[in-house]
Amino acid sequence: MTDSTGEIVDYYTARFREDTRLQARPQGRLEQLRTIELLTELLPEPPARVLDVGGGPGVYARVLASAGYQVRLVDLVPSHVAQALAGDPAVDAVVADARALPEPDGGYDATLVLGPLYHLLERGDRVQAIREAIRVTRPGGRVVVAAISRFAGPLDFAATGRLRGELIDEARALLTDGVNDARIGFTRAYFHRLPELVDECRTAGLAELVVHGVEGPAWTAAEAAAGGPLADAVFSGALELARLFSSEPTLVAASSHLLATGLVRRRAANDLGEQQPWKQRSGERI
Q1: Less crowded by CB within 10 Å, the N or C end of the chain?
Q2: How crowded is residue 122: how many other Cβ atoms within 10 Å of its Cβ?
Q3: What range defines the domain where residue 82 resides?
Q4: Torsion, Cα of 165, 170, 172, 173 (10° steps)
């Protein structure tokens, strides 16, 4: 197991401000808007119990708490937990590792894993994090798992006129093992191909799996138009396409972020009595 815990904590404590990331660029704003829309659609009605694993400073946890959900946040970075506890509204939060959650079995109606998979370089660790999310979620409850697309960085660099030299080499290297060069800016991370994310979720035990492309296929156009006369129009168009093509399998991987969602399997009907079948509200199963 590759343990990069110290590196991750140092990056988010001393080198990068996660609390401002989502408002800094068009891609971040699309990510935030679409993630909130998808969570609103996918999660059970409040006051359901939601565990936000890797929830950072609490951006989504606060949205959910304000909507009436009972939310607890878990994050590896102590400064993120402090920000979540101090926010408005304050969020119940604790420092912990996604691979070993300090939570009881089946204690939540839904669990979000919207960051840990980025920083777990080995498949076994990623599967373990998803298994932990499944463990703490009740049978029939929902688990939502985020990943960064293998192609996000190179597409971003191209859209913003930065794809040259070492970045082209980085794009080529990413195709081999999905692990980035931390010297370029981001801490070491894993970037998924769509089939890998599906395989990891299924291996962990999620059922009824659907994968959404969060920012949609036109997020790079919004980045390229930023600061120009068409910025607002292009952003609006990108948002509409993100909604329209959210779970279109042939376009999902064009998004910067992938959002896989599935259900915790119920026990056999002869153990629990007759169960009502789950009705998928949106998306095409993969």
Answers
A1: N
A2: 14
A3: 5-264
A4: 140
Is the pLDDT confidence value at 126 over 50?
A: yes
SS3 190: strand
Q: ω before 104 within 30° of 0 (cis)? A: no
- Which residue, chain included where needed, has tokens 């939060």? 93
Two tokens, residue 34: 């679409």
What's the structural domain count of the chain? 1
Residue 278 falls inside a structural domain: no
Residue 283 has pLDDT above 70, yes or no: no
CA-to-CA distance for 195 and 193, rounded, in angstroms? 6
Q: How much is the pTM? A: 0.89
Residue 68, domain CATH: 3.40.50.150
Using alpha carbons, select from 256, 243, 253 the residue that is nearest to residue 286: 253
Q: CB of 128 within 8 A of CB of 205?
A: no
* Residue 273 belongs to a domain: no
Residue 121 near residue 179, CB atoms below 8 Å: yes
Over 50: is that where the pLDDT of 181 sits?
yes
pLDDT reported for residue 281? 39
